[in-house]
Write a structure and sequence with these properties.
Serine Threonine Protein Phosphatase 5, Tetratricopeptide repeat, mainly alpha
Length: 134
């Protein structure tokens, strides 16, 4: 992925750079390098915004939330997951909306905001039932 990023930078292909940053962020996340993952996903987010790519922006927010969880930055994670939720609603993607509610429910539990956690988990449950997702 680093070679790919180098090549697409040389070619000046910004859209491909965004994808490369996302791939690098996901790889660093899987390797447990959460700070590096965050740096790559922030680059991905900036390019997604540059192109008005709401789906890529939504994925970047979700990935940023996931990485911050592992660094114990639950407030920051919740902020990113709220942005994920907002974009999933704009994109009318119920499956992703359910996923965002699930992530927010878990994060609110970590923040000991149990009332909010219940609200998000109930919303997740309702969407899962609507989608027939057992």
């Amino acid at each position: 992925f680093r070679r790919n990023l180098s090549l697409v930078k040389e070619l000046g292909d910004r859209a491909a750079q965004g994808r490369a940053y996302g791939n690098l962020g996901n790889t660093q996340y899987l390797l447990g390098n959460f700070s590096e993952a965050i740096a790559f996903h922030k680059e991905r987010l900036a390019i997604a915004k540059e192109f008005g790519d709401k789906a890529a922006e939504r994925r970047a927010y979700s990935n940023l939330g996931n990485a911050h969880i592992f660094l114990g930055r639950f407030d920051i994670s919740a902020d990113y997951y709220r942005k994920t939720l907002q974009l999933s609603r704009q994109l009318k993607d119920q499956a992703v909306e359910a996923q965002a509610c699930y992530s927010l429910g878990n994060t609110c539990t970590l923040l000991q905001d149990y009332e909010k956690a219940i609200e998000y988990h109930l919303r997740h449950l309702v969407i899962a039932q609507e989608l027939g997702d057992r």
